[in-house]
Amino acid sequence: MGVPRCHPLSTYNHGGAGSDAVAKKTFIIVGGSDALMLLGIGIIYYLCGTLQMDQIQISLTSPLATAAYLCIAVASFAKAEQCRFIPGSRSALN
């Protein structure tokens, strides 16, 4: 039956030379982007008091609002870059 193509274990490199360094780098990027996303969401909740999308109105005039925007933007770009390396994905970046 095998592993589906969209599954993370379906990558073509299964532990060659230097794969430990690549895995460590990937883990740091993915974990860091998750932490930034959560930090940005936490700042938005702190500023607005809610996570209801229709009730959030933030102006980028305060440093805290700008920090929330940058956290979420950086995390989103890291997640988009992560999708480029999934075998079989139909990303526009390929």
Describe this structure in words.
- With 94 residues, the chain is an all-alpha fold.
- It has one domain (15-83).
- Helix content is 54%, strand content 0%.
- It has helices at 19-48, 63-83.
- The radius of gyration is 18 Å and the shape is elongated.
- The protein starts with 18 loop residues before the first helix and ends in an 11-residue tail after the last helix.
- The model has no long low-confidence stretch (mean pLDDT 78).
Count of separate DSSP helical elements: 2
Question: Strand fraction band?
Answer: under 5%
Which spans of ≥5 residues are poorly predicted at pLDDT below 50? none
For the biggest sheet, the summary is: none
Quick check: average pLDDT? 78
Shape: elongated
Outline of the structure:
This protein is an all-alpha fold. It has helices spanning 19-48, 63-83.
Per-chain topology:
Blueprint: H1 19-48, H2 63-83
Helix pairs in contact: 1-2
Question: What key phrases describe this protein's structure?
Answer:
94 residues; mainly alpha
